[in-house]
Amino acid sequence: MKIGKYTIHTIESGDLLLDGGAMYGVVPKPIWEKSSPADEKNRIHLKTRHMLLISDAKKILIDTGSGKNWNEKFEKIYGIDFSQHDMFPALAKIGVKPDEITDVILTHLHFDHIGGAVVFENGKPIPAFPNAVHHVQQKQYDWALNPSDRDKASYFNERYVPLSNEGILKQYNGDFQFDEDINLIVVNGHTPSQQLVKISDAANTMFYCADLVPLASHISFPFIMGYDLNPLETLREKQNILPQAVDENWHLFFEHDPKIAAGTIKHGERGLIFDKTFETI
Ligand SMILES: [Zn+2]
Fold this sequence. Notes:
It is built from 8 helices and 16 strands. By secondary structure, the chain is of the alpha+beta class. The protein has one domain: Ribonuclease Z/Hydroxyacylglutathione hydrolase-like (Metallo-beta-lactamase, Chain A, 4-Layer Sandwich). A hairpin with a 2-residue loop joins strand 1 and strand 2 (6-19). The protein binds zinc ion.
C-alpha cells in the first residue's frame, strides 16, 4: 500500500503470550476467549507487528518488538518466540538492512515495543539500528526511567538508555507533525504519552494503533487492557479517535493481533464492527 511518498510494508518480528485476563480487563473470559483462545496458563497469542515506511529518502520503522537476550525465565513467562517471525530476517526479505533504517518511531517503551532497539555484543547493549534517529515522547521516557510499582515490570533501562547515551534518541512534547504525510498523536490511558502514528494523504489514512487498540477485538469500547494505568482515559481516547476512523475510512493497523494486520471499521447495531480486515497490507 502506498500513502503519500511512502510505500508501507508489514513486518512481523515475533510472537508472545500474555495473560488473557490482563489483555481484556473487565471483559469476562467466555466473551474474549472466542477471539483469543487461551492456553493452559490462561495466556493468549500475540504478535509484534510493525509498519516499515519507505520513501526515496527514508526508511522508517515503527516500534521494534521484544528483541532478544532475555533471561530464560522471562522468555518462558511471556512465551517470547522468534521461530516463526523475526525482525532482521523480515527486513532482509524486503531487502532492507538494519543500518539502512533512518528513523525508528517508538510508540512507548514497554519491553514488547522497545526490546528490539538494541542487540547485545559481549553482553553489552548497542543500538540495533545504529544510523536511525529514534523518536519518543519525553514524558514516556521520563516515566520509563522511574515507573510505578504497578508497571515497572514492563520497563528495562538497558533497552532505551543506550539510545540516549549514543545521542540517537530524540524526545518530543505532545502531538507533532513528523512530515507532510505523518502525524504523531499522543494518548495517555495506557501509559503516559504513548504516541500513535497517523499516515495520510488525500485518499487514504493508515493509523498505527499500538496499545490503544492492541488486538482487533479491542475496537469494542469496553475492551480495555488491565495493564492500562488510566482505563477511563483509554475509553475517552477510543471514543474520540475511533468514530473519526469510521467517518474518514481509516485503515487501523494492529500491532499485536495474531491474525488481523489491519482493518476498516463501521458502526454496527451494538458498537463498532469491522467493515474489511487484512492479514497484510
Ligand atoms: Zn504497552
